[in-house]
Batch of 2 targets.
Target 1
Amino acid sequence: MPEKREMLDDVVITRAIVERYFAKLLDHLEVDVAVAGAGPAGLTAAYNLAKENVKVVVLERQLSIGGGMWGGGMMFNELVVQEEGKRIFDEFGVSCRPYQEGYYTADSVEAITTIGSRACQAGAKIFNLLSVEDVMIRKERVTGLVLNWTATELARFHVDPLTIRAEYVVESTGHPTEILQIIQQKVGPKLLTPSGKVEGERSMWAELGERAILENTREAYPGVYVAGMAANAAFGAPRMGPIFGGMLLSGERVAQLILAKLKARS
Ligand code: 48F
């Protein structure tokens, strides 16, 4: 008897993954906006840009998206948002429960899975396991990101990176402000901050931190807009701990700023 043909061919499965992945990557080598970091700020930015038909790619170092959102506060997986943050959770469809006047809580796992899903469904393409290790600069403006596999970074292999060209970059790498640190290292103190350098985040103060973040969500070097915790770190404002409204509002704001620029261009 001839051997029965297998219905599921292992090599077809492999070919499907390889072809589809590289088609996706090739399609996103030149984009309108490249978002560095898939925490709450980066994902909210990506969603708000993608739903306006902007071509967005999100690069995330870790295996999972979500940044500091999964762990709520100190691994207690609940988040707090204020009234304005609740408005954005409502738009995403994340359930919020009133706690006391002006305070709402949400389950952090529901929050991040919902926001991530909405960003993808709006058309943002997320590549996890890729780290931004440098930027491309032309005529004193960032024109793209330099990427490497996170595994290469972890193994400390000497492997050269590849690049993505973007009209605008969103720096949403959180507390370490990695993209601005890289730029500062390469061009000196030329950031659009008071000292020209990353000012550094101040100690925890939810009220001030949340108030400052929208003002700090802006262009921090030509072509690079800073959002989320990186915005407060860049401009020297306090951290705010596990209240997440500011991250969402900052992601929304950075998208509005870039959309206005893209519209002015066309
Ligand atoms: O840290 P993260 O969640 O930043 P965020 O969106 O939100 C901050 C809050 O989580 C919390 C807070 C709330 O008040 O203060 O900390 O501003 O997400 C940043 C993401 O960027 C990734 C990192 O793995 C994380 O998922 N990331 C950082 N550096 C790089 C990077 C890099 N060089 N390349 C790619 N991804």
Note: Residues 28-64+126-265 form a domain with the FAD/NAD(P)-binding domain fold (CATH 3.50.50.60).
Target 2
Amino acid sequence: MNTSTTIDELKSIVHASKAKGKRVGFVPTMGALHPGHASLIERAAQACEEVVVSIFVNPTQFNNRKDFETYPLMMDKDLEVAQEAGATVVFAPHVDELYGGDLAVAPVDYGPLTSSYEGQKRKGHFDGVVAVVRKLFSAVEADAAFFGEKDLQQLAVIRKLAEDEFIGLEIAGCPLIREPDGLAMSSRNVRLVGEFRQTALALHGWLNRINNQACKPSDIQTALRAIESEAAEMEGVELEYIDVVNGLSFEPLRDGPVGPDAFAIVAAQVGGVRLIDNCALACS
Ligand code: AMP
């Protein structure tokens, strides 16, 4: 496995691969790799001969300085996980290599996609995500890029970015990977201490409760309100949002039938750790 910290070096590796007719896959990450990330790399390795994994904690997408400063870093272990999962190149640039000393990013307006839910609760978050992914897509020049459905709204934003600016780049959405007890895997889970690890299971439980109403959409609003009241009583829990949306447009589905793109989405702080989760609604 190659490692590279500069765009020039990365480009020379990728161009050499392309000259040999290899398909290039790309998996952007912020490191602290876990099996959720590994599943993306494995998917990329099944579809592509060259698999570039970027490890870069992007300062411009953090709306909360403490969250950025406490974001877990573990490069040595990450290199092992990436290689084991099938990465052929790890690109780990310094912040100046991507931003050239200027951390100002342009605002992005994709309508509700960037203004609602994560966009509303984390002001400027998607401006930073789009800025860094645009730079990374330009640096890597991949044929396909792999993103987790764990960050469902981000995936929809990236699809729009690719459609507008990176014609021909395939965006592959990959399934959300959970811990055996149902907690969505996240690099931030290591910061869930004591009883908060158990409390965090509430998010998955709430999503399941909403999914249980998928055959009776008229009851979904009642379930959402009940969950909000319950969360308000929970020690150390701050529910930011829970709702049912179209997973492509991120417009709320207030009433009416639950269609094929209906998802329940949730974000909450548990013991000071911000967690998000989602599940596709299926009437069975
Ligand atoms: P991050 O390092 O958190 O920025 O995530 C990098 C990529 O891994 C994103 O496309 C995430 O959606 C994806 N990812 C993170 N956690 C999971 C998970 N539990 N299951 C699937 N994909 C994930």
Note: The longest strand covers residues 237-246.
